[in-house]
Recover the amino acids of this structure.
């Protein structure tokens, strides 16, 4: 694929990655808050850390929903990050760190900025190259 079609393909791949990076990051922050709340609740109860309600004390059902949604989002995040790597051939070490960033609170936001900063010039170069040929 060359020219404007390849540029549009890269734009779409970058957009998918960015959406998943933000969604995964938000749910990882919620999961972290859930676990911290379980720790504080443990001080007031005789239950073990993970037996406490956590976020379910505030939003019923969220104690089960947040970890499950984060798990599925992270799985899709990994697939989308690998897809973007295959299209752009970003450095493999950086891509591995980008994938791992979905497991560390706040790091998916940092990784999203790193990836966007490297892929947008690629998109611009591909689009300019296609415009010169046309």
């Amino acid at each position: 694929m060359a020219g404007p079609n390849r540029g549009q393909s890269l734009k779409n791949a970058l957009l998918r990655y960015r959406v998943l990076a933000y969604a995964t990051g938000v749910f990882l922050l919620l999961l972290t808050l859930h676990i911290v709340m379980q720790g504080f609740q443990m001080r007031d109860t005789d239950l073990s850390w993970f037996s406490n309600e956590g976020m379910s004390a505030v939003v019923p059902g969220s104690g089960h929903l947040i970890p499950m949604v984060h798990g599925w989002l992270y799985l899709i995040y990994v697939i989308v990050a690998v897809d973007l790597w295959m299209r752009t051939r970003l450095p493999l070490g950086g891509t591995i760190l980008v994938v791992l960033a979905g497991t560390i609170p706040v790091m998916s936001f940092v990784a999203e900025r790193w990836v966007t900063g490297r892929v947008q010039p690629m998109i611009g170069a591909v689009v300019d190259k296609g415009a010169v040929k046309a």
Summary: Helices lie at 3-44, 62-88, 92-100, 107-133. The chain has four helices and no strands. The mean pLDDT is 90.
